[in-house]
Specification:
Distance between the termini: 74 Å
Radius of gyration: 32 Å
Helix content: under 10%
Number of helices: 2
């Protein structure tokens, strides 16, 4: 037979195959036998349950390893039962909230609005990209984002490998190898997310970062960012997780320091505060360009290496002279780093130290408890210059670098509120000699205020306060505890005359605030009681 040795012949037509055609047929039969011996067949790829065809209805061109939410089956049994059984195809759409645990990873690029059905992995191993937080072992669909998954303590994808970048910093777009189809146990039950916000001095948000910190049992109730500092061009926040024991009392169980990039809030490092068995419920942090002091009892450098450990008091700070100022038992003391012998010792203090601030020559300390609800000014040598009776616990203090004014904040007391009296205010501004310039409630005169945990002065007649949350949103008319409605927390700015410039209602309990390079950084956690939905970041 002349011509093409592989051409087809009609019925009844003489067929004299060439040697090449005959041998090719035998090779094909051998290939089929080999597939069958391995459990396959000619349609092995079509029946592979790990990859299925998917239609791109996301409205955008999609790249290899993009994510599509599974919206529906493309060919139903009613359309074609045989095709459905042999080769089910999916309809893929843009990832939304309902696609968590219900998504596919594209294995090849595809244009929008075309009839192509590229392969996608719905179960098994695949490459993909992940918005990755160091320490997370699972990932799932990220609503609103078709380019990557989002890591977490649980999810439909188990992370087998992730390229987390320098120092394991993580962030968006990390290339990873994952296994789809293995879901971890449910995520921890805790108050969250923990939050950090960067604001302009006009109260506008530059960026916000929310964190789910620990995968734990449900008995761990309260995860919080409790204090913040900016040092060496890095934002450091200290976190704690309160454990609710059998008695119902909360005690902090675990603490870590998280370092963030001040430009975008991305995590650059996590530093575990391990080895400390007892921690305060709201640990504090402070630092300078050389060291960071974490209230868990550590002084460490900016590489995370511990330089010194000590027995902490309720509040400790590194002063402009490089000394650590802290309260131990009933004394205010200062230490050089690495030395257990105090440089200064003020042993006449009978109440707990809750706040420290400095100017060029003086130390300002805020006290609480029954007999010492006041602000005191000492020289660096320990001599008392003046004191001011606040009427309630002093929890925060800062000094205006331009004029020496001292801004102080604290928590309220029923004794000082109408109808019981008019002499209590949760915010006060004093001059450098301790004379009162003005007072303000964090709420207003007829309402219970909040715990003012942080204050800041910008050196340009701007005074800032932030609080845990207000205790009541109705006028107080009964006994303590008679009104328990909770309102959202606020950060506020006042001018030098005590006029309110702006107030930002942000729905979280805010514990820490620091002013750096013309911006405010605040941290805290979403309120257990208000459960206000955060705005998208």
């Amino acid at each position: 037979m002349s011509g093409d040795p592989f051409r087809r012949v009609a019925a009844g037509q003489a067929c004299e195959p060439t040697a090449a055609a005959w041998n090719a047929m035998l090779d094909a039969l051998d290939f089929i036998k080999q597939l069958k011996s391995k459990g396959g067949g000619l349609n092995t790829e079509r029946k592979n349950p790990l990859r299925l065809p998917i239609k791109n209805d996301s409205g955008e061109d999609r790249d290899q390893y993009d994510i599509l939410g599974i919206d529906d089956i493309l060919i139903t049994p009613a359309d074609n039962e045989d095709e459905f059984k042999a080769y089910p195809a999916l309809k893929g759409v843009a990832v939304e909230d309902g696609h968590v645990g219900k998504f596919a990873v594209l294995q090849e690029p595809v244009k929008k609005d075309v009839g192509d059905l590229p392969k996608a992995v719905v179960h098994g191993l695949t490459i993909c990209r992940i918005d990755y937080t160091p320490g997370d072992e699972f990932a799932d669909a990220k609503p609103g984002d078709c380019t990557q998954l989002k890591s977490g303590s649980s999810g439909a994808a188990q992370i087998l490998y992730v390229d987390a970048g320098d120092n394991n910093a993580g962030g968006e777009g990390c290339l990873a190898l994952v296994r789809l189809g293995n879901r971890a146990p449910a995520a921890a039950k805790h108050v969250g997310p923990a939050m950090v916000r960067k604001l302009t001095l006009d109260g506008e948000q530059v960026w916000g970062a929310d964190f789910s910190l620990w995968p734990t049992a449900s008995s761990f109730l309260n995860v919080k960012m409790s204090d913040i500092v900016v040092a060496n061009e890095t934002v450091y926040v200290i976190t704690s997780e309160a454990f609710c024991g059998a008695s119902g009392a909360n005690s902090a169980d675990r603490t870590q320091v998280i370092a963030l990039d001040p430009e975008d809030g991305k995590i650059t490092k996590r530093i575990a505060m391990s080895g400390v068995s007892t921690l305060p419920n709201r640990p504090r942090i402070h630092g300078n360009d050389d060291y960071i002091i974490a209230h868990g009892g550590y002084v460490f450098d900016h590489n995370g290496d511990v330089a010194w450990s000590f027995t902490p008091g309720p509040c400790s700070k590194i002063g402009p002279d490089g000394l650590i100022y802290t309260q131990n038992t009933s004394a205010i003391r200062s230490y050089t780093i690495g030395n257990s012998t105090p440089v200064m010792d003020i042993s006449s203090v009978t109440d707990s130290l809750r706040a420290i601030a400095f100017d060029g020559s003086n130390i300002y300390v805020g006290l609480d408890q029954s007999s010492g609800k006041e602000l005191r000014c000492y020289t660096t040598g320990g001599s008392l210059v003046w004191d001011f009776e606040h009427g309630a616990n002093v929890l925060a203090v800062d000094v205006d670098p331009t004029n020496g004014n001292v801004l102080m904040g604290g928590n309220n007391s029923v004794v000082g509120l109408p109808p019981f009296g008019t002499d209590f205010y949760s915010i006060r501004l004093l001059d450098s000699s301790g004379n009162l310039l003005w007072s303000a409630y964090h709420g207003d005169h007829d309402h219970l205020g909040g715990y003012v945990y942080a204050v800041a002065c910008d050196g340009n007649d701007g005074y800032y306060v932030t609080c845990l949350r207000t205790m009541n949103n109705t006028p107080f008319t009964g006994s303590p505890g008679g009104n328990s409605d909770t309102t959202i927390s606020t950060t506020r700015k006042y001018d030098i005359s005590g006029n309110l410039v702006w107030a930002l209602d942000h729905g979280e309990d805010t514990y820490g605030m620091v002013l750096h390079d013309g911006h405010l950084y605040i941290c805290g956690t979403k309120s257990l009681l208000t459960r206000v939905q955060l705005e998208p970041i």
